[in-house]
Write a structure and sequence with these properties.
- The complex is a heterotrimer of chains A (321), B (321) and C (307).
- Chain A is an alpha/beta fold and 321 residues long.
- Chain A has two domains: 226 residues, Rossmann fold, CATH 3.40.50; 69 residues, no CATH class.
- Chain A starts with 6 loop residues before the first strand and ends in a 6-residue tail after the last strand.
- Chain B is 32% helix and 24% strand.
- Chain B is built from ten helices and twelve strands.
- In chain B, helix 3 crosses helix 4 and helix 4 crosses helix 5.
- The two termini of chain B are 30 Å apart.
- The radius of gyration of chain C is 24 Å and the shape is elongated.
- In chain C, helix 2 crosses helix 12, helix 5 runs antiparallel to helix 6 and helix 6 crosses helix 8.
- Chain C has a domain of 198 residues: Orthogonal Bundle (MetI-like fold), CATH 1.10.3720.
- Classes of the chains: A alpha/beta (321), B alpha/beta (321), C mainly alpha (307).
- Chains A and B meet through helix 5, helix 6, helix 7 and helix 9 of A and helix 5, helix 6, helix 7, helix 8 and helix 9 of B.
Amino acid sequence: MTDAKNEILRVEGLKKYFGSSGAVLHAVDDVNFSINEGATLGVVGESGCGKSTMGRTILRLHEPTEGKVFFKGENIVDYDKKQMKALRKEMQIIFQDPFASLNPRMSISETIIEPLIIQGVYDKKDKAGLQKRVRELMDLVGLAERLINTYPHELDGGRRQRIGIARALALNPKFIVCDEPVSALDVSIQAQILNLMQDLQDELGLTYMFITHDLSVVKHFANDIAVMYLGQLVEKAPAELLFKNPLHPYTKALLSAIPVPDPDYKMERILLQGEITSPINPEPGCRFAKRCPLATAECSGQDLVLREVEPEHFVTCRLVQ
Amino acid sequence: MKELLKVKDLVIHYQTDDGLVEALNGVSLSIGEGETLGLVGETGAGKTTLAKGIMRLIPNPPGKIKEGEIFYDGKDLLALGDIEMQDIRGGHISMIFQDPMTSLNPVMTVGDQIMEVIQKHNNISKQEAYQKAGEMLELVGIVKERANDYPHQFSGGMKQRVIIAIALACNPKLLIADEPTTALDVTIQAQVLEMINRLKKKLNTSMLLITHDLGVVAQNCDHVAIIYAGEIVEYGDLQQVFKNTQHPYTEGLFGSIPSLAANVKRLQPVEGLMPDPTDLPEGCKFHTRCKYVQDICKKNVPPLIDIGEGHLVRCVRCQKQ
Amino acid sequence: MANLEKTASEQNSNISTKKQRSLWQEAWRRFKKNKLAMAGMGFIMFLIVIAIGTIIVDLVTNKSFYDAYVIKLDLRNRLEPPSSAHIFGLDEFGRDMFLRMIWAIRYSLFMGTIAIVISTIVGGVLGAVAGFYGKLTDNVIMRFMDILLAIPSMLLAIAIVAAMGTSITNVLIAIAISYVPTFARTVRASVLTIKDQEFIEAARAVGASDTRIIFKYIIPNSLAPIIVQATLGVAGAILSIAGLSFLGLGIQPPTPEWGAMLSNARTYIRDAWHITVIPGMGIMLTILAINVVGDGLRDALDPRLKS
């Protein structure tokens, strides 16, 4: 799909199923994509579509059921425990809930120090070195130095999220999975964190996989956007192209459902019927067919794959020419 | 338009371990018959306190309505006895809460839960109540056969519909919706809002819609009030507030939303954080975050001034004009 | 770069500078507000001080004080009611009730505590392992706990003591074993809730090992319910010790022990009220105090009260 030279991550046929015989939950079902170094891929989908599971499976926080994940050209699915631990320095994750993702019994400095000690970057006894690095990181994410000994419960959501970001950055990673990092925050704080993440990307050359349910959040941020529905990518395109010319009926509905903060803006809503169907033992065919306003009998029966309909614009829907 | 609800100078404080929380500091607003007022603010701004205050559901202790008056249909709600108030709640004023997962009783069928409200406020037989409960379900787009199902058998969006059915079961004149769609996905949010709007028109209900999402307000409300640190900082109709934004906080809120329409590369958020409600700043409560701050802002609380045709703004910059 | 955000957050963050307390300090601050719990705590502290005092007396006098006063018989004045000379009166063998009461504290309080400490550690480790690893490990451990739970704990303790002989150590072991399943369950339940939290996943994402996760993340976070359970457990253990002694399987005469004292006194309940009421009150007040403290701890440690 893209220039293989500066490609940092490639995912091939990634599957993650939960449960065994009988009811198998297809959380991630045959996903393929790649991300270039320094770029941002936005992954958009509704709750239960498997986007978080996908992020965690790529980091092998969940073991993939099938498929390959190439990081800098190496298939990390084959890595053993030791190799995996070393790799963690390069791939990190920022979580959605800034409260649940911090250990309530650890102060800010303890939280940020944790990865440095675990990975042996600093010696546990090198107090001065550790303190210096913690201060550096706190400065980087905009946390005032005097908060260094505070505990998560004393801080507001925005600050907690900054700690989470500092922890992720502690090991100088190249690639960060951002799992809805702003959706638990207030609007004004949300914007502050988004700007911060953008600045960090520019400064440190980070690559993001930005998972979100809110299309508008990734619009000005992502280079490419992938839309996910029931474990599969249904559309993938450069951000601007996707907003200008959405092709998949689900993407269209998703875009039209976002309330626009302008009283004069009257968009025609495409109201979907029903809700996301069950990912347990899905029938072959288009997963969206049951809610799709355009679905015909031919939509079910055969699994669909992403195909390129215009340069860099991939979509699964068979009705798109 | 006849005035249905009038809140005058409402002050609500909570006495907590950490000190006196000044949740609401003199809020006045009114809602006409059939009108929808959007109340926009961030976490801790006092949105929910206001809603609970109107319903007289402020737990005492620690909460206390210090000052102010609430008139519903000419009746002073604060002067009513507990029994009379119970009659108002559910019968005249209903409330929808944010989290559909926890607002339903898990061990009662949804039909029984709707019937409970109906029987409490109307003197009708069980048969008739059951009939009515079925009708209410149909009204919110759920087949009446599902009245015998328990909440866990419904999805999030469906539960929120059930909650709306309960809220509307006794034809209340005023509906207070506290972030009714925040916990839902965008496509489901679109369905639910569309339905609320349709029912509101049909039943001529007034609504106080509490949200943090300016997009939701733009698409659903007649008037909008922006609340910050327990005070209304800007009030007006949609055109006034969205097209002729005056208060710096409102401006910041708009700058924080990643817009789908405009092509912004960087967000312009409000700097800083919400002040600690136990330790609010002197003078204008927004002055610590305001980019137009002057010396006078630090001393005097600016009054809410009408800058023309009912567009109210609490800012010294408007005073001069 | 991030300067904009930084200055902004620094300006307004005078809020959090004033309080930099760990959750434990915060819990203690809440606990102190609870008058009843503080009173219970005071009473227990008082008992501990007295008990330690009696131990020191024994050590210093090489038990000669104990022999001369605590277990000395004075059959002529037996069952004498409380007076200024003997504020709790004399028992059925004419021994001073007051001295016997305070000499007995160590068996109830300290043995109860030790028994619970043992079962907390054993049960805690079993529960943590079961909860953390799940699947077969969980099944094996928890089914074994279920079997233990299926036997009434008092009967189990009686059986153990009967089989191994009556000695202080055996009583301790018996009581410790009978409390293991309760702690295993408590710990397992809290491990299960904590295990799925995102901060555990965050630790994994930076490469933390299982051991590190258990000791640095799971245990510190599940300590609160364990502390509450253990405190309340001490009360139960004291009752069990008293119960075993009452049945003649615990502490043997002439060593003073509240349960045994109560048991021996019950024949004289019509003639001398004080020798049954006083040890009874001792047991009751101690249990009450511990339970009040336990409740206070629960309120103070419950994170749900904290926003």
